[in-house]
Design a protein that fits this description.
The chain has 250 residues and is of the alpha/beta class. 48% of the residues lie in helices and 20% in strands. The protein is built from 13 helices and eight strands. Strands 1-2-3-4-5-6-7-8 form an eight-stranded mixed barrel, surrounded by five helices. Helix 12 links the parallel strand 7 (205-208) and strand 8 (227-229). 36% of the residues are buried. The chain binds guanosine-5'-monophosphate (2 copies), manganese (II) ion and sodium ion (NA). The site of one guanosine-5'-monophosphate has 15 residues, from strand 5.
Length: 250
């Protein structure tokens, strides 16, 4: 209904904007990257979560055009940030199946002038689960362009460990559900330690997602995690707020 008709009108810039959530390095405290997250400008936006908007976009196939718009917007904004800060963009599996994502990324980098190494593409285990040669080729081609790959929501998918050998990724983002329970649930805590140890031994960086307390931050730091993202550091910010956040930090 309403979400779908918004998505159909082609002026995405009038209907959506991006929020940016900082991700910081645990060793240096510096911001390594920001994750661009789509936000709906509609009056009903406070009753409809970003996840619902994405789900409708996926069900209708409009995620292909919306995703291309998000990518362009995020890359353009990234060029205004300090050059040591990368831009992370979420890619839906449908953007692989229903469009030529390699061409889209390549064209967007050219159009915006963002160096490929400053783009972190967040993919999910669902994409890898398809296990298709086309997807393997696309992921290789994206890395060959110079873009980085992050495996998002890690630990929630299926037979995760297999993929780490088969698909080269630069980063693993440990799902928020594990971090949430880390001080309380011994199993979750063991899983987080195991993921971090495995990633470290493979030379893959780790990001703990959804860090909300100082205790959670200290636990993942002690476990050898590379980076953190979550409300403790910052909520997703509008561009002007992000600029202020970055100038207020060392
Ligand atoms: O802030 P948060 O509520 O933004 O995001 C909700 C969900 O929507 C998350 O799973 C996030 O990965 C996803 N999401 C946010 N922005 C985008 C986007 O531009 N593309 C895709 N595919 N997913 C997004
Ligand atoms: O699926 P993905 O990891 O891309 O989604 C990021 C989502 O997590 C966004 O909806 C973002 O708003 C949300 N998020 C980021 N940090 C926190 C946090 O510390 N706590 C909670 N509850 N959600 C968070
Ligand atoms: Mn993400
Ligand atoms: Na995630």
């Amino acid at each position: 209904g309403r979400i779908e008709s918004t998505l159909l009108s082609e002026s995405f810039g009038e209907q959506f904007h991006l929020a940016f959530q900082p991700i910081t390095d645990l060793a240096t405290g510096r911001v390594t990257s920001v994750e661009g997250l789509v936000r709906w400008r509609h009056a009903a936006a406070d009753r409809v979560s970003p996840q619902e908007v994405i789900t409708v976009a996926e069900e209708t196939g409009l995620i292909v055009d919306l995703g291309a718009w998000v990518l362009h917007e995020a890359c353009e904004i990234a060029t205004t940030l300090p050059e040591e800060i990368n831009m992370a963009v979420n890619l839906s599996p449908l953007q692989f199946g229903r469009s030529n994502i390699v061409d889209i990324v390549s064209r967007t980098l050219k159009d915006t002038g963002l160096p490929a190494r400053r783009l972190d593409l967040e993919i999910t285990e669902t994409l890898l689960l398809e296990d298709s040669p086309r997807i393997v080729d696309d992921l290789r081609a994206l890395r060959a362009l110079g873009a980085r790959l992050s495996l998002d929501d890690f630990g929630t998918g299926y037979s995760s460990l297999r993929y780490l050998r088969r698909f080269a990724v630069d980063k693993i983002k440990i799902d928020r559900s594990f971090i949430e329970e880390i001080g309380r649930n011994r199993d979750h805590s063991s899983i987080v330690h195991a993921i971090i140890n495995m990633a470290n031994s493979l030379g893959i960086r780790t990001v703990a997602e959804g860090v909300e307390t100082a205790e959670q931050l200290e636990i993942v730091r002690a476990a050898g995690c590379s980076e953190v993202q979550g409300y403790l550091i910052s909520r997703p910010l509008r561009k002007a707020e992000l600029d202020r956040f970055l100038t207020d930090r060392p």
